[in-house]
Amino acid sequence: DKEVRAIFLRLFAQLFQGYRSCLQLIRIHAEPVIHFHKAAFLGQRGLIENDFLTKVLNGMAFAGFVSERGPPFRTCDLFDELVAFEVERIKAEEGNPPKIIKHVRELAEQLFKNENPNPHIAFQKVPRPTEGSHLRVHILPFPRINEGRVQELLQEGLARSQGAPPATRGDKKCVVPAGPPVGMFISS
After folding, report:
1. Is the pTM of this model over 0.90?
2. One GO molecular-function annotation for this sequence (predicted)?
3. Residues of the chain with pLDDT under 70
4. Mapped to the 3 state alphabet, what secondary structure does 89-140 carry?
5. By the 8 A CB rule, do 36 and 19 touch?
6. For residue 120, what pLDDT is reported?
7. For residue 110, how many other CB atoms are within 10 A of its CB?
C-alpha cells in the first residue's frame, strides 16, 4: 500500500515540479487569493501542447491542490520536500529502475513512519463474542454515583485547565520551500 502511494507521490512530484514559482498571492480581499499561471508553467516546461497536463491543470482537483498547498506559510510534508529538494535525484534516476525502486521504498518507509510514529504501541483487537453469547443475560447493576465526589473532580479539572497553556496541534507551520525554478525542467 505504501509503495503504491510512494509511486504516485513521486509521479505527482515530477509532474508538478516548479509549480510554486508560478503561484501568485493576490491580497485584494480580506482573505488572500492564490492564482496559478498555467500558461507560464506549461510554457517554461515546454509542455504547451501536452493535452494530458493541460486537462490536469484545468481540473477541480488541481484547483483544490493550489488552494490547499499554495499558501507560502503552512505545515510542510513529504511532498513539499520531494518537490523542493529531490529534483536532481529524480532526474538522475531516470532510466535506472533499481535506483527508482530504492527511492520508492525509501518514500514508502517514510510514509509508514509518518502514519505510525509509535510503532511499539500495539492496539489489541477486540475479541469476537463467543458463540451463543447473545442468548445469555448480562445485566449488571449501574453503580451509584457520589454527587459530592463528582463535584470535587469537576472543580479539580477546572482548576487544572485554567492554569494550563492552551492546547495546540503538533504540526508546526513553516515557510514552504519553493524549490528550483520551473525553467529547469524541460520534460522528456
Report:
1. no
2. guanyl-nucleotide exchange factor activity
3. 119-124, 138, 164-171, 181-188
4. HHHHHCCCHHHHHHHHHHHHHHHHHHHCCCCCCCCCCCCCCCCCHHHCCCCC
5. yes
6. 66
7. 16
Contact in structure between 21 and 181 (CB atoms under 8 Å): yes
pLDDT at residue 70, rounded to an integer: 80
CB 26 within 8 A of CB 32: yes
Q: For residue 60, what pLDDT is reported?
A: 92
- Give the span between the Cα atoms of 18 and 115, in whole angstroms: 27
- How far is it, in rounded angstroms, from Cα 107 to Cα 103? 6
Cβ neighbours of residue 22 closer than 8 Å, sequence gap 6 or more: 36, 37, 38, 40, 41, 44, 182
Rounded to an integer, what distance in angstroms lies between the CA atom of residue 165 and that of residue 64? Answer: 34
Which of 4, 154, 18 is closest to 86 using CA atoms?
Answer: 18
Rounded (10°) angle between helices 60-69 and 51-58: 60
| Residue closest to 23 by CA, chosen among 31, 14, 33 | 33
All three cell numbers of 10, joined, read 513521486
The reported pLDDT for the residue numbered 176 is 75
Helix (H, G, I), strand (E, B) or coil at 45: helix
- Helix, coil or strand: residue 28: coil
Q: Is the sign of the CA dihedral 91, 176, 74, 67 positive or negative?
A: negative
The span from the CA of 93 to the CA of 6, in Å, is: 15
